[in-house]
Amino acid sequence: MLSERPDSRIAARPQEDAPSAPLRVGIVLLHQFTLTAFAGFLDVLRLASDYGGNSRQILIRWRVMSVDGAPRRSSAGTLQVELTDLGDVGDFDYIAVCGGNSYTNTTPSKKLSAWLVQAYKHKVILLGLCTGTFAIAQAGIVGNRAVCVHWNVIEEFQRQFPTIKCNVDNLFVDAGALVTCAGSTAAIDLALYLLTRHYGKEKAQQALRHMMLHSIRPARLPQAHFYIDLDQVSDLRVHKAVHFIEQRIDDFPSVSSIAAHVGVSPRQLERIFKAALNTTPAALHRVMRLQYGKWLVTNTRDSITEIALSCGFSDSSHFAREFKLLFGETPRTFRGG
Fold it and tell me: Residues in domain HTH araC/xylS-type (predicted)?
């Protein structure tokens, strides 16, 4: 369920009561965490907690932690030190788990999993930032709730947790006891959402202005993805090739480079694409670009010409022709409808 109110875990508190009862947030950094998700989420809290950007922990208190208080290196290679060990779960209203590039690790920390279970039992609301949702799922406390993951990791999430419903059509999903987001800048939107819940829209706007952002994006805003559904495709070589193309949507790799990545010949790559998807690698890449264009037409005010160029088309006429072939109407008509 999207944007569901928490299941009696913590009620929104009036702004005037906040100084005597600050919101308490713990942030757990995993190995190779993403800087944008961590810094964006924390900065929203910091800017809303005090006035004038003074950064005092008045309205909100936060603690940044890791298992055993060990330093954590981000996916960008920077090292985060001066972290504390996992604290008493009773010290927090929310606990955010911030992941990154370590999501393929299928042997989670037993200490972290047990701590998250304890927090859940104490009715602390858990937040999954970026691939932190993997760690929460590994702890076995998602249940029948839907979670939000980044389109780039959905295939791996489905492989590890085939019974959990995951969503890439939202920036974040509020399932009550668990709130998960796609990561990157969506962590900012999630933090602003929490501010609005507890302190009102004005406090969220305060953080927004300091961060030089223009608006609060709603949870239901679709991710700007071009995810290809491969649920019915069993050939792992096709999965690997499609993922390789997804990562290079702005600069289509040669068929020979895709084939080399997968470990087949170019001719064999064409054959397995035809058998599994009834298309070619180049045609699939064009579909991805058009799907991204469709998202831009739907969710931005950019001109059709700007969108065409952003999606790698030489001009708006070329983009419009291809768009109509795939979606049945021109971008302008689609936007107007």
Answer: 239-337
| Average pLDDT of the chain to the nearest whole number | 90
The correct CATH number of 15-210 out of 1.10.10.10, 1.10.1060.10, 1.10.3720.10, 3.40.50.880 is: 3.40.50.880
> From CA 128, how far away is CA 119, in angstroms rounded?
14
Structure confidence at residue 116 (pLDDT): 98
This model's pTM is above 0.70: yes
- CATH architecture of the domain 236-336 equals Orthogonal Bundle (1.10)
Q: What is the DSSP string of 168-233?
A: SSSSEEEBSSEEEE-STTHHHHHHHHHHHHHH-HHHHHHHHHHTT---PPPTTSPPS------TT-
- CA–CA separation, 65 and 88 (whole Å): 12
In 3D space, the residue among 35, 40, 14 whose CA is nearest the CA of residue 172 turns out to be 40
